[in-house]
């Protein structure tokens, strides 16, 4: 099975972005899955994820930001201010969003480093006024993209991007179900790499082909008759985004014999079951779809509970771990209601872990996850 394009996604992406940059192509740095890929790509711009996932730049970030901010914000800002992230280096401008308070205030500092467009996101999902506000926000983004790239977004380009991104979301979702098979040869960190690569693909068609190839390799693998089923507790991971560098809880759970078969967070499956409607006005369809992303910055955020209920059934999970970063008030607070929902409505064991990017609590985490595994068996 060829996992190299996924495991080494950063090296491939750096080479492709370098080439794209040399040809005069524009690159947008993004920090959130509310950033509408379809609109950005229809303007001929490549979006690339800049979310910081490593501890290293945090010390520099804390010179400007409160130490109590979440590590994702501090790591992201730290990379920008120290100019140590190649992806930030490639970004001509930033497309930011008003999700959590920490990010909003961090962006006020970041705009001194790079041109930055702030998308104003409503904090509720189901009112007509919220949708109208968000649609006008997308129109503002369109103007900004045009000013940056000089390319007008045409309806046909937008519809083509909608079809392509829908296809990618569907293919990735189906592949992840296959990868969660009890006979799967893939580890959680390999699955994480497949998911994470999505936000680093310069050419989405290539990523789609890679997903299809891996899917057919997995299907072929399962035709073998000598495979055994993995034992161990099947975990659904929810909460804050996790990636290469901030995956310590995933590593610990797997070392203890559990299988993290489903990652519901933004670095995983969040939003993959939400296609953009391919009929009608594409702007409104994009606005409707993105507004339904179930993030804790929304209130209420019942979509997250429903998504977890659906994914837990599809992935046949035994237990749920809610991983939140210290300083992330919205996900930390939401853990109380989510825990009640999981235990009372779904009848599954629930563990809330609040941690950061350092390794200082690794042993304590190991003890808690081990005790939880025994409970869930
Ligand atoms: S958790 Fe919320 S704010 Fe963070 S990337 Fe996801 S949607 Fe954006
Ligand atoms: S993890 Fe929480 S506090 Fe950190 S950027 Fe995301 S929503 Fe904001």
Explain what the structure shows.
With 377 residues, this protein is an alpha/beta fold. The protein has a domain at 4-154: 3-Layer(aba) Sandwich (Rossmann fold). The protein has 16 helices and eight strands. It has helices at 4-7, 9-22, 37-42, 58-61, 71-82, 86-90, 101-110, 128-149, 155-179, 188-197, 204-221, 248-255, 282-291, 302-314, 329-346, 362-376; strands spanning 26-30, 45-49, 93-97, 116-119, 234-239, 259-263, 319-325, 350-355. It has a four-stranded parallel sheet with strand order 2-1-3-4, sandwiched between helices. α5 runs parallel beside α7 (101-110), α8 (128-149) crosses α13 and α9 (155-179) packs parallel to α11 (204-221). It is globular. Residues 32-34, 99-100, 241, 266, 293, 295, 297 line the site of one iron/sulfur cluster.
List keywords for this structure.
377 residues, alpha/beta, Rossmann fold, 4-stranded parallel β-sheet, 16 helices, binds iron/sulfur cluster
Structural class: alpha/beta
Q: Could you describe the largest sheet, including whether it forms a barrel?
A: 4 strands, parallel
- Gap from first CA to last CA: 31 Å
Hetero groups in this structure are: iron/sulfur cluster
CATH topology of the domain at 4-154: Rossmann fold
Strand order of the largest sheet: 2-1-3-4
Average pLDDT confidence is 96
Backbone shape: globular
CA radius of gyration: 20 Å
Number of helices: 16
CATH architecture of the domain at 4-154: 3-Layer(aba) Sandwich
Binned, the helix content reads 40-55%
The CATH C-level name of the domain at 4-154 is: Alpha Beta
Strand content: 5-15%
List low-pLDDT spans: none
Run of helices and strands: HHEHEHHHEHEHHHHEHEHHEHEH
